[in-house]
Amino acid sequence: MNKLVKMVKCDKKLATPRRRLSARNTGTISKVVKVLTQPIASTAPCIQRATNMTVVVRVRPPNSKERDQNSRTVVKVVGDQLLIFDPKEEEQPFFYHGVKQKDFLKRGNKELKFMFDRVCGNSSTNSEVYTYSTKSLVDTLMNGYNCSVFAYGATGAGKTYTMIGTEEFPGITFLTMKDLFSRKEELSSEREFELMLTYVEIYNEVVKDLLCPGGQPLYLREDSKYGVIISGVKVHKIANPNDLFLLLEQGNKRRTQHLTDANAESSRSHAVFQVYIHMTSKTTREVSTAKLSMIDLAGSERGSATGYVGPRFKEGANINRSLLALGNCINSLINGKNHIPYRDSKLTRLLKDSLGGNCHTVMIANVSPSSLSYEETYNTLKYANRAKSIKSNVKKNIVNTDLHIEQYIKLVSDLQTENATLKAEVDRLRHDNQPVQSDSGSQVNALTSENAMLTNENAALANENATLKREIEILNMTINALKIEKGEGDGLCAVKIGQESKEVSMEVCKSPVKPSISVEFTELVVEQKEAMKRIFELEQSILLLKGQLDEDLNRKTVNIIKNHETRKKLLEKFDKDEKEVQKQIQELRIARTRAENKLWNLLMASPELSREYERFVSDKERMEFQYKSELTQIENHMLLKKLSSFQTTNKKHRADSAVTPGTSLSGKSQTKPKRILQDSKNSGVNSTFVMDKDAAKTQTKTKTRQIAVKGYKTRVSKRFGPISTAGGKENNHQVRKFEAKKPVKRNWI
Ligand SMILES: Nc1ncnc2c1ncn2[C@@H]1O[C@H](COP(=O)(O)OP(=O)(O)OP(=O)(O)O)[C@@H](O)[C@H]1O
What we know:
- It comes from Sitophilus oryzae (Rice weevil).
- ATP binds at residues 153-160.
- Keywords: ATP-binding, Coiled coil, Cytoplasm, Cytoskeleton, Microtubule, Motor protein, Nucleotide-binding.
- By secondary structure, this protein is an alpha+beta fold.
- Among the domains are: 51-89 and 105-399, Kinesin motor domain (Kinesin, 3-Layer(aba) Sandwich); 531-605; 606-639.
- The chain contains 20 helices and 22 strands.
- The strands form seven sheets. Strands 2, 8, 9, 10, 11, 14, 17, 18 and 19 form a nine-stranded mixed β-sheet that branches. The chain has a three-stranded antiparallel β-sheet with strand order 3-4-7, covered by helices on one side. A two-stranded antiparallel ribbon has the order 1-20.
- The structure holds adenosine-5'-triphosphate (ATP).
């Protein structure tokens, strides 16, 4: 990021001419260009950068003609970046009669200084030119930026030689491709590459494919994604650079060439060699493209100088027109005009994205050193000098921007890896640090043991202190006792109860006081001691009793709890049983209701059956009543029997009773038995007559049956209307029907 900021600052500095000049003077421009074309961090892929066109001037060696005519050298190379056009010549003094004469016919030298990014002298090789002009573009291309190189110059200035070269000295096109391939190999572990190339010429404003013999004229088209493209051009894929040189040679042979005054094999067309690079990152799958355009322009020439007519004249005119259009575009770009006349010629249309657009551009201006090409060289130098000012805004061609997320994922993954490494490092350091910690641990242990020792010492001293205090106390008591003896004391002896008092007594006994006092004191102490002993014994017995009581209480509590639990369990079981019984009752009720309903339906369906049923019911009731009466009599008889036996056994207790149970009960029992018979209120004695269990049970059963029979009767009577038990029936169907609709109310217990 800092690098990027520096680069932008650097660019800003170069924007003003003075600074640019100073940069050139100090030789920093090449460094700047180098920095600008260095690889950029992939984390800032779409950033735009303003960059100047790189202009390199190459001066070719004088050819045989130039040498033959002994022409003057009009280009003097001074250093790597400076050249002087039409330098001052050393004057050959001419003396006439010993007086130095001035040559009035001689034209004054221009002595024009030109500074470029690089000036290659006539001894420079293609390889050197490549190093100073195009080599840096390889990395720029690999970073996804478009690049273009075009060779400009007059006829025979050495453009084709620079671009294509010979087999012995291959030109920069081949050298660039060679480097591109080696760079591709270097990056093959990171990226997948696809290289495609085209080679076309523009001759008389017609575009032709140089790699496809007999091809049709091609048309230029502008694509929003790839910029200017040549429609219908054959795209070639090459595996290695050696194939390329053959391909270039073949294409160049197909190029339109004619003999000119300046060049035996003058190229009469503009040759455009383009390489499309498609790169896919193996880690992030980011796809970026780059286009390299290498243009060998047709030679600029003066029409008047050639002296051609006809087709050659037209050819020259087209070349000049296209070069003029190129010049106009350059001027417009320099002046910062909004409209750049790219459409004025096929050449400028094709170079639209190679001039000042999204492209790093390198211009190689080829010049002849000879004065025979004075005008052409001068024009070329002026042209190149102006081209230096062209600025282009370059940006990286990212095809798939969504893949940036993958970059971030990779970044996160890298950071996580780094984090893991750092964690491991921290762990390692912790591990290394452990002996130090154990040392400090041992120090702590030593201090702890020392502290324990000191604490023990302190406790011993505290004991000693307490002993001394007790001794002082004993001494005070002794003093008090002596005072009492003398009659000086307050009559109070600070005798303590308990252990200390024993010690006191002992000490006192030992003390050198008078015998009478000590004996009395000793007696008191002994008495007190016995009292204490008695108290202690009592306390012990209290404690014992308390313990017994507690134990008893606990046992009882446990029993109570146990009983409670048993009761609880029984209650629970009872509840459960009750629920079960209730459930069974409910089920039985449901079953009975169903049976009744079934019966009812049957009765409703058949009046015969109904009548039969009524008869059956009345018979049943009669029989039941009969049975019940007999049963009641038997029961009453048995009850009376039991009662009489009960009376016999409890005769003594019933002596005061005014009631004669046998008499009174016998009368009542014939009609209805009673469970409880209370004694007469008149007797004034609160005695209660209770039946024995069996009698009460029998009586309860009888009662239950009576009620059950009654309930049944009620139900039947409600259903079928009034039924006479004596056999008289009121077979009223209307009433029966009405009653049937009402919900049956049962009086079951
Ligand atoms: N640097 C150089 N060293 C040696 N010979 C050179 C050099 N430059 C050019 N020549 C020679 O000069 C002659 C003309 O060169 P070249 O064909 O490259 O010129 P040109 O600019 O392409 O001309 P045109 O525009 O007519 O095609 C060629 O024979 C070439 O070998």
